[in-house]
Design a protein that fits this description.
The structure holds two protein chains of two kinds. Chain A is α/β, with parallel strands linked by helices. Helices cover 39% and strands 15% of the residues of chain A. Chain B folds into two domains: 159 residues, Ubiquitin-like (UB roll), CATH 3.10.20; 46 residues, Alpha-Beta Plaits (2-Layer Sandwich). The chains are: A alpha/beta, B alpha+beta. Chains A and B meet through helix 18, helix 19 and helix 20 of A and strand 4 and helix 2 of B.
Chain lengths: 1045, 226
């Protein structure tokens, strides 16, 4: 039997020994995450290596608890220096021992590289993941071997217990905890000391303590890590609590799915008993306390205290009515105090360091730190301990390192399945109990799931409801049936079968479930629904009204992402499948079915289909545009064209103003519906921006004209050199017998820079410049050309300039970085920008123009200033800010402005009756494209401002349908359908080897020499073999069987 | 005796009474389904909800399980209570559309139709049969198994129980199995032949003004006079 003095001496000795031990110590993280990475083998390899080199008395090795940075496991930290090695493999171990231990050198390749700065970081404390954390509970996790009580004693363990055992009354302990402001870490945040006080004051000699380690939230594992990594801290907390409350028996209720936690805590209890810290007459003080372990069978509801008690008693894990509260009537009917693992682990720290030390951390109402398990779409997955009051943004961006693959943040969910989802606008919210509840979420036990733009919030609500429908105990009718019914409604919505009345019913039901259920599970179960409805209602509405899933997730609505994201509903998945089978003609027919400008799209479409391609999630997306080009080249070569000449079946005539992609598409579909269509074009050639803005090296005139000819032969008349406002007016068109007019005049007016000297000779607008070149007129540019902007117009202008005779050097000046350039991208920024670089265009990034320099009126150069990326603005995009004093000069003969275009609607007279916005766009009903003037529709860039070809085509298609309904006198309301392929093509069998060997082909291109001063088409297209191979790589999402729950 | 406030009136309750007992003692009608005198309170159907507390701390609790407490403020017929009970009845109706008991409950709350998809699950897991069997018949032949959506009432291992004496107590007490009403309307629609208009005063006031049963007796009297 040891006495208090004995243990004090042991602790002092252990602490002295440890501080006297100057040997380096290799610590290997042995938390759950690192276990999965195989840290056991790493530990063994270290001891083998140390034995082999006979270094046993020169170095210590310790398998410790979780270090938190699970993303980078297995983690090895070498103390005392704190050298941090990540992703350590068995092969690295001899080198670590010989280099870092024997020769005291750092091994570069095992260091963590800061992804923002590219710098290698040597010490654990300097890693950004740890920098903003305040690890008080987790501090010792990385220093002690959880299987050895001596390690805990060596860091001052059980000192707090000895302190209270020898000198504090129960009231003093409770008062200290009260002063600290500690609140329950299980989620509800009830002040710990008050609970203790109630329990202490409850009548009865027999009282119980329970440690709630029933951690059931998906993705949360902080309690597990504490029990695994520092079990004695929890035991010490419980001992102090028992002393304060007067309990003689305690229980740890831990999930059976946590074998390592069960093992380590059992071991810790045994060791504590050996040291006389548990059992009868502890350290000769007369105080008795024993702890039992109860293993739970993994019911989420058993985290609720009354259900937990029922489970400990061996009954059905079902909550009961409170009051009476467990502190009045708990386990076996006796007063029972239940606290969460993390709460217990805080107690020794509060006793040891004082209440003031603790209450200095945190906010007014929430004191101390909180451990979160940061998971989901985040770069640094792991356990983080942060002071209360830290902003969500700091946790996600600074500690978590932001969202992988440069995707956009969408929401963060705290509080587990019954917590809420918070949008980007709440990122600056300080994390504490009240603030989280205010915004419709909760602290919960500390799960934090980050979601990016590819997460559908309706699907998230569905996921959590699915979890909860199985995890509700099922007693309360509103919880059991309410969750099932909420799931039923949400599933209808994600299947595209929802109605707007469903949203109202869902909200009403969610509120009732929240209001009318007995326990915390039911009361918080509707939170995922309510918070997504609160912050992401537009996503629900998109599913219901437009049959769109904005994140392209919900299977029954999207079918395949490529088809769902295509504004004109091209069946990418189908024609890819046909190409893979060698049925090229059929593939071309599928393309022609929905696309009147197929050869054009095959060359210049910005292919949104590829951005959400599932193959791109773990590799490169399918080269869908290149495959379309292949099919269309095949069609051209084999004379496959759409049916010529539609039958005229209707009396009405329609006029279209503008022959760009929007006008052409609208004309084609109206002709198909049997109308007589005339397109009026102000330029001498048809095609609008396709002919005037896009240079020949990207879109050969032969291909452009072939598509336009096809539309003409479908029955559309195109009249060139006919400008609205100059040659005729809107009213005249109606007088001529046209019954509907579609205005699609595009956006041609360049924005101005607004810097001194920009007016005058030598400065060109990119659009005027491109039009001049495309129409074969003389475009006067000098030897040295500068282009301001980063979009397609800028890159096009640069590549046209370098091709013109006399031009020697072209520089693009862009104020942000290359990744932000809006010019078309394929595979991480290749394509337009890369092509330009290959052709010798110089791109000056993070550079903004300040003023144009002129000598005697003649342009001689431009003064620029260096920029750096500053703080993110409201949209979350980092804004460039100038670096003071970094001005410099670029010598130029010509300056081209390509910072964007806007529509010029001055051709519409004020009395024509069509409403125009302040920025010059035509105002329309976004669903029908009808303007405020009877019979006048508008679409494309003139409505949206400068946009893409395929979006303009989509507007044309919509307009044709609206005009059809208008002329037939039908209701103008648009109907929407879920995306579905017209045919299902049988899947091909691929071997594993073939799958592994296939990769996205690079588009064959003209050599640099051939491109020099030539407008020949740069892209050559895939050959048959390449195309078939690439098509075989498609994952065939549209065939994916429905998910089975 | 405990002193508490019931719908704004100072009342007394005996130690150990539930709120339901207290309210009924003072003649306040509170609908119940899983409650049965002589069986232990269970709190599963959530129809007997009442509002307790004030301001932001006000909450709904099941009156059949919540004990009367000194100083507690209880309101039995607020708008919030009424809305929650109606939703509960709508859910019940969708799960077990043919039960006369549930149809009558719905009619008494002026719920004419359920907006949820009608499913003939029939058993609403109110647990009356389980309690009847164990508490009154000393049978313990049936009980609950599973949790959440898959929860059900059955005999151990789903086989005929040696304990069951075929007394029929479970059938007698079941609000769903017995008393089927397959009236003229589609499932999920209440015929309303036993129509009871809900408190009209709630449209104007936070609390009901009287507790006559059936409600709207006041209106009916007026109509008669006219």
């Amino acid at each position: 039997m040891k006495t208090i003095e004995d243990l004090k001496n042991i602790i002092e000795t252990k602490m002295r020994e440890r501080s006297a031990d100057k040997k380096p110590c290799i610590t290997v993280c042995s938390g759950t995450g690192c276990h999965a990475y195989g840290c056991e083998k790493v530990v063994k390899a270290f001891s083998d290596e140390i034995n082999k080199k006979s270094l046993n008395d020169k170095v210590n090795i310790r398998a410790t608890g979780c270090h938190g940075f699970c993303e980078r496991g297995p983690i090895v930290v070498i103390h005392p220096a704190g050298i941090f090695y990540q992703k350590v493999k068995i092969e690295d171990i001899p080198e670590i021992v010989s280099e870092s231990i024997v020769n005291n050198r750092v091994i570069d390749r095992l260091l963590y590289i800061d992804p923002n700065t590219g710098e290698k970081i040597v010490h654990e404390k300097d890693v950004p993941f740890y920098k903003k954390q305040q690890r008080i509970i987790f501090e010792n996790n990385g220093f002690i071997d959880p299987e050895n009580i001596n390690d805990y004693l060596a860091v001052g363990g059980y000192k707090a217990f000895i302190k209270v055992l020898s000198s504090s009354s129960p009231e003093e302990i409770i008062s200290t905890v009260k002063q600290s402001g500690l609140r329950g870490r299980g989620g509800a945040g009830f002040p710990t000391a008050y609970k203790w006080e109630f329990c202490k004051k409850s009548k009865g000699d027999v009282k119980y303590l329970i440690c709630n380690a029933d951690e059931g939230d998906p993705g949360a594992y902080m309690d597990r890590s504490l029990l695994e990594g520092n079990p004695h801290a929890v035991l010490e907390g419980m001992l102090i609590g028992a002393l304060a409350i007067g309990a003689k028996e305690g229980y740890i209720y831990v999930r059976n799915e946590y074998p390592l936690a069960v093992k380590n805590i059992s071991l810790a209890i045994d060791q504590a008993k050996q040291f006389g810290l548990l059992g009868e007459d502890i350290l000769g003080s007369g105080f008795n306390f024993d702890i039992n372990i109860v293993k739970g069978a993994g019911a989420f509801v058993c985290g609720e205290e009354t259900a937990l008690i029922a489970s400990v008693e061996g009954r059905f894990g079902e909550p009961r009515q409170r009051p009476p509260y467990p502190v009045q009537k708990g386990l076996w009917g006796k007063p029972t105090n239940i606290n969460n693992v993390e709460t217990w682990a805080n107690i020794p720290l509060i006793i040891k360091n004082g209440a003031d030390w603790f209450s200095r951390i945190g906010t007014e109402t929430s004191k101390g730190t909180k451990i979160f398990s940061l998971v989901g779409k985040i770069n640094n997955t792991g356990l983080v301990e942060v002071p209360m009051g830290i902003k969500l943004r700091e946790i996600i961006e600074d500690i978590g390192g932001g969202i992988p693959k440069g995707k956009k943040f969408k929401a963060v969910q705290t509080g587990g399945p019954s917590g809420g989802c918070m949008p980007a606008k709440l990122l600056d919210l300080p994390v504490d109990y009240e603030k989280l509840t205010e915004v419709g979420s909760m602290m919960g036990s500390g799960g934090m799931v980050v979601m990016d733009e590819d997460t559908c919030m309706v699907d998230v609500a569905k996921y959590f409801l699915n979890f909860l429908k199985d995890e509700s105990c099922g007693k309360c009718f509103t919880c059991r049936e309410g969750i099932v019914r909420m799931l039923e409604i949400v599933t209808d919505i994600t299947d595209g079968k929802g109605t707007m009345a469903d949203i109202q019913l869902l909200e009403e039901l969610a509120r009732t479930v929240k209001d009318s259920t007995m326990c915390g599970l039911g009361q918080s179960a509707p939170n995922p629904v309510l918070s997504t409805l609160r912050y992401f209602r537009d996503e629900y509405e998109a599913h219901i009204k437009y049959k769109r899933c904005p994140a392209v997730v919900c299977k029954k609505i999207i079918s395949s992402p490529c088809q769902h994201t295509c504004p004109i509903n091209q069946e990418g998945c189908v024609y890819i499948a046909l190409i893979a089978r060698g049925e090229f003609a059929k593939a071309a027919e599928i393309i022609l079915k929905d696309n009147p400008l197929p050869s054009i799209c095959a060359r210049v479409c910005h292919h949104p289909c590829e951005s959400k391609c599932r193959a791109g999630e773990s590799g490169d997306p399918i080269s869908i545009r290149a495959l379309k080009r292949f099919a269309m080249d095949y069609a051209t070569a084999h004379g496959i064209r759409p049916k010529k000449g539609f039958q005229k079946t209707r009396e009405e005539k329609v006029a279209i103003i503008g022959s760009g992609p929007s006008g052409l598409t609208c004309g084609f579909y109206l002709a198909q519906k049997g109308y007589e269509v005339t397109i009026y074009e102000s330029a001498p050639v048809a095609g609008g921006m396709l002919a005037l803005g896009i240079p020949e090296h990207r879109l050969p005139r032969k291909m452009l004209n072939a598509d336009i000819e096809a539309i003409k032969s479908a029955g559309v008349t195109i009249k060139t050199n006919q400008a609205l406002g100059k040659d005729f007016s809107l009213d005249e068109l109606f007088k001529k017998g046209y019954q509907a007019v579609f205005i699609a005049t595009g956006a041609y007016k360049s924005w101005k820079l607004g810097i001194p000297g920009e007016e005058g000779e030598g400065v060109l607008e990119s659009m005027k410049f491109l039009i001049a070149v495309n129409l074969g007129k003389e475009a006067k540019i000098g030897k040295r050309v500068g282009i301001i902007g980063g979009g397609n117009a800028a890159v096009d202008s640069s590549r046209v300039s370098i091709r013109l005779p006399g031009c020697e050097k072209v520089s693009i000046i862009y104020r942000r970085t290359k990744t932000e350039m809006p010019a078309f991208k394929e595979r991480g920024g290749k394509k337009e920008v890369e092509d330009a670089l290959e052709e010798g265009i110089d791109i000056k990034l993070l550079t903004a123009p300040v003023k144009v320099i002129r000598e005697n009126g003649k342009l001689v150069g431009i003064e620029c200033i260096r920029m750096e990326m500053g703080e993110p603005d409201e949209s979350g995009r980092r804004r460039p800010v100038p670096v003071p004093g970094s001005e410099f000069k670029i010598e130029l003969d010509t300056l081209i402005l390509a910072i964007g275009e806007q529509p010029d609607t001055s051709f519409l007279s004020e009395d024509c009756g069509v409403d125009i916005s302040k920025s010059g766009t035509i105002l329309v009903n976004p669903e029908t494209l009808l303007t405020n003037k009877e019979g006048v529709f508008a679409g494309g860039d003139v409505v949206t401002g400068a946009n893409t070809v395929v979006e303009a085509m989509a507007a044309g298609k919509v307009a044709s349908e609206s005009i059809d309904r208008y002329l037939k006198g039908e209701s103008m309301a648009r109907t929407y359908e879920v995306t579905k392929p017209s045919i299902l093509v049988e899947a091909l069998e691929l071997t594993e080897e073939e799958l592994a060997s296939l990769e996205r082909p690079d588009m064959p291109s003209l050599s640099i020499e051939e491109r020099h001063k030539s407008f020949k088409e740069v892209e050559l297209g895939l050959d048959e073999k390449m195309a078939m191979q690439e098509a075989r790589r498609c994952l065939r999402c549209e065939l994916e069987p429905e998910e089975i729950d | 005796m405990l002193k508490l406030k019931l719908n704004g009136v100072d009342v007394q309750a005996e130690e150990g009474w539930t709120l339901l007992e207290t309210a009924r003692f003072y003649g306040l009608p509170i609908p119940t389904l899983c409650h049965y005198e002589g069986l232990s309170p269970y709190g599963a159907c959530r129809l007997c909800l009442v509002e307790i507390g004030t301001g932001p701390n006000a909450k709904l609790v099941s009156s059949c399980t919540y004990p009367a407490e000194e100083g507690l403020e209880v309101r039995t017929h607020t708008r919030r209570v009424s809305a929650a009970r109606k939703m509960v009845v709508e859910l019940l109706l969708a799960t077990c559309p043919d039960s006369k008991t549930i149809q009558d409950l719905a009619a008494s709350m002026e719920v004419q139709k359920t907006r949820f998809k009608v499913r003939h699950d029939d058993c609403i897991l109110c647990g009356l049969c389980v309690r009847m069997c164990s508490e009154q018949m000393s049978g313990k032949a049936i009980g609950f198994v599973n949790r959440g959506e898959t929860r059900k009432i059955t005999t151990p291992f789903d086989i005929r129980s040696e304990e069951c004496r075929l007394c029929g107590g479970c059938m007698y007490i079941c609000p769903a199995c017995q008393l089927r009403c397959q009236g003229p309307d589609a499932p999920g629609v209440v015929c309303g032949s036993c129509l009871n208009v809900s408190p009209v005063c709630l449209e104007e006031y936070e609390d009901a003004l009287c507790y006559l049963d059936p409600c709207c007796q006041c209106l009916k009297e007026e109509v008669k006079k006219k």
